[in-house]
Amino acid sequence: MLLRRTAALAALACLAAACSAPAQPAPTSTQAAAPTSVVALTPKVLEERPHDRAAFTQGLELVDGVLYEGTGLVGQSEIRATDPTTGAVSRRTPLPSEFFGEGITLVGDRIWQITWQDGVAIERDKNTFAELRRVDYTGEGWGLCHDAKNRRLVMSDGSDKLTFRDPVTFQPTGQVAVTADTGPVTRLNELECVDGTVYANVWQTDLIMRIDPASGAVTGRADLAGLLPAEERTGTDVLNGIAAVPGTDEFLVTGKLWPKLFRIRFDGHP
User: Fold this and answer.
1) Mean pLDDT throughout 16-38?
2) Is the pLDDT of residue 29 over 80?
3) Of 105, 176, 184, 231, which residue has the fewest beta carbons closer than 10 angstroms?
4) What is the dihedral of CA 195, 52, 260, 49, to 10 degrees?
5) What's the DSSP call for residue 118?
6) DSSP string covering 28-62, please?
7) How confident is the model at residue 37 (pLDDT cuts 50, 70, 90)?
8) How many alpha carbons lie under 13 Å from residue 48 in its C-beta half-sphere?
9) How confident is the model at residue 10 (pLDDT cuts 50, 70, 90)?
10) DSSP states along 178-243
11) Is 100's pLDDT higher than 60?
């Protein structure tokens, strides 16, 4: 994804001082459990919906009938509220022009939005998108989701690690290494928390992993290759964006600069 990396690097030199984060307590680490068998999750497409081709999707979450989407690229990053059926945008707020937006998640009436290499998490008002405060963190920010069952945030940084954070302070509280039957799983990107389980896009692939965050073990693997037909791939980027549909076993998935959003169900659930 040269576009993403090249665009962001241009802004890094002038951000070096602003993005440095204060020292924070090191999160405790949890050793990943011995690999277990990984269930093949077969995606079944239930519906195709329109998606904004200009959206470089980084985070996706469906709450109270509104699809919240965070987008990336320096100078183009924003947060938006859309109609999950039509794709119509009802509200949008840009990030400061120097930031490269990444994952988002909602916690009550607040939204957390992280940035790639800027070391900044932005807390927003859910209804207005007004910025409430910024919190510095160490390392890169990729994906983010709210594990309501365990009262914590889960964050990825492109490695095989998931970091747990306090949903109010954003401070790290723990960490786990993610392992599948093939070994460590790196490039964990956009995340979705569902009833204590984490689903993760794997950057530069068409894979979504289902992860037990207690052990770090991958329990399911879905291959979404071919979801967007080859003839519609021109000018698009990778699969990225997964949002659970509350009250169902369905998900909405899309990709960066994709013209479509797909409502799917994974066959192979235990």
Assistant:
1) 49
2) no
3) 231
4) 70
5) S
6) PEEPPPPP---EEEEEEEEEEEE--TT--EEEEEE
7) confident
8) 6
9) very low
10) -EETTEE---EEEEEEETTEEEEEETTSSEEEEEETTTTEEEEEEE-TTSS-GGG-TT---EEEEE
11) yes
Q: φ, ψ for residue 46 (rounded to 5)?
A: -100, -25
Average pLDDT over residues 83-109: 96
Amino acid at residue number 212: D
Helix or strand (DSSP H, E) at 3 = helix 2-19
Token output for 64: 């109270």
Strand partners, 152: 147
At residue 149, the 3 state secondary structure works out as helix
Q: Comparing 4-18, 144-158, 255-269, which segment has the lowest mean pLDDT?
A: 4-18
At residue 133, what is the residue type? R
* Residues 215, 178 contacting (CB under 8 angstroms): no
